[in-house]
Amino acid sequence: MGKLFGVGLRAGALACFMAGAVVSPSSAAPIGSLPPAPSLPSFSGQTASPSPVGGTVRPPQNPFLAPDPWNNIHNDSWMSDTYPGAGPIGLDLEGASGSAQPGICATIAFDSRGRIVTVCPSTLTPPQARIVDPATLEVLGTLNLPDGPSVGSTPGYQDYTAGGYFFLDNRDRIWVATKTNHIWVLGQNETGNGFVLERDIDLSGVLGPKRERMSSVLPDYSGRIWFVSKQTGKVGTVDRRTGKVRVIRLNERVQNSFTVGKTGVYLASDRKMYRLGTTRNGTPRIEWQVRYRNSGKVKPGQADAGTGTTPTLMKGGFVAITDNADPMNVVVYRTALRLRRGQKREVCEVPVFDKGKSATENSLIGAGRSLIVENNYGYTDPFASGGGAVVTEPGFARVDLKANGNGCRRVWTNRDARAPSVVPKLSIRTGLIYTYTRPPDPSGSQGYYWTAISFRTGRTIWSRYAGSGLLYNNNYAGLTLGPDGTAYLGVIGGLIRLSDAPVTD
User: Is 505 part of any domain?
Assistant: First the structure.
């Protein structure tokens, strides 16, 4: 997520933005591409034959979240990044953009009326909550959130606060941490074309308005609200009824979100993996912790010298992250509080990609006993001089936990798809991994492409051109599959979508 989340675009980038698109919210002008035009084909590959993924178990529905899989950036409280329904298979693909409006809508959720609800931090306006028509991408209603500068050493383009992570609850309300260290609860007005601030939970006294920023907030299965801060790893809970706040401090950086199971909360700092519970009065409590391998380096594409992943829960009592070794490993742990005789907390470490060329800043996809990891090594500040010209290292890999739960194996590695920073997603029904790539182009074009990869074989099935230049850079936003199978993505210029052509008689 970008300078879009910071205090301002650099002058050159802003000039490009204004040259490429009309940014007035009332404008109907689509997002414009920047030259040079791509020399690569607008579509490559072939229509996929759906190959459903077997052996998966849907995460339990958290009763305090909107229905899975449309309530947070990673789809459900296990952070599986999967959809039980279909996505595009590549049949006469139709792409479109909404009107050009600044703000990367990193998390795209769907309310009970089937509309997109999202929060879009921006440089030209404060962070903004939006209600969007999913068919036309017309913005139906907005509400500005409090703005503020980035805090600490995190570069502005990697500042995920104030909307990077939010959740939609079971009453169509957005819960979002603001840059003033409040949690805002945003309901919808009676006509459904705007927001109402229903609750304001002030945590500035706990976090300090100038020292800490919250990364994420989520409910557990009892309805208690959890939050975590970036700079010193303060982990807290809020009692929904009384508003009572209780906090512990890990004294470690926590860059990403966290994961909620029925019996525990899972969090990865820049040093360790944790399982957390609560004491009787609701104070967070460490139930186990384990240090993971760490090169100590902030690799190109990473936000800090630690894991780039939110933990992913798996069926059978396992949780997975990537570490920060070189090469990076996919690491799986047992979630149980007490291990059986002879068991170790760590199940496996599987190296992925090449030494000196492996890093990710996006959560693993978890489907059954399979994990999908994306390589983001080499991604740089898109607003810096020449930043958009950098092509990242290629790579996707699939790692499977063995059937007996003792060890893992790498099933395949894709060495051609280059996904700079997107949160990829998997459709269980089509068996396709959906991502957003930027291949090298002899013309020098900074062309971005919707891309589908086979879950079964790892082969790239198809790619379809989206647009070129800064405005089409998604800068860490998450790809989303809508209820009808349409793919959506927030980019610097606004929202884009992709769908198969409708079937006609």
Answer: no
